[in-house]
Amino acid sequence: MKGMIMAGMMALSLVLGGMAIFSNAWLEEVDDGTTSSVGLSNMELSGDMGDDCEMMAEMMDAMMDGAESTCDGDELTTVVAISDYCAMMEGTDADDCDKTASAGTMGSIGMWGGVVFALLATLMMVLPMAGVDAMDAIPEMGQKVISWGAGGLMLLGMVLWYFMLPDGDSTISTGLWMAGAAMSIALGSTLIGQFIPSDE
Fold this sequence. Notes:
By secondary structure, the protein is of the alpha+beta class. The protein contains 6 helices and 6 strands. The chain is 62% helix and 16% strand. The chain has a 6-stranded antiparallel sheet. A hairpin with a 3-residue loop joins β2 and β3 (42-48).
């Protein structure tokens, strides 16, 4: 039972961590009806454009390289890579944008490392249940590093991302909540394995 709980928690951490990496909404800011969301590599702009939505979508795609704009009724949503968006900026805004892009890169490295370790940790727990001993060759110390590394690398990525961000008034959004949940669940799974006896 203990092993199944740990495996389930690590698998959930893997899924949430992957979703957080690809989320465009780690931070969110609303200004004059326009919502700006920033993820690790992309940013998303959305707002009500009324009857001009299709025209504005074409303008946004023409203004920003690599942008993808779609209309859902009157609601315009534009997704663009942070680095491409930064190329349009000048002065202090460009500096802040570059800091955001760099923070996203460091956050991505940490999160990807954590997700890979979460996958390995999940396989280490699930394969023996299925009678497969493919992961038994990993020494005990390596298994501990992998188990702690899943949540630890996610935490490191989030901390680096936070401290590299420029100052701003954005609020926490869904992507960051998912990353925090993934990190907490991964560390929780490892703590259960380390400190709770198997017969409890």
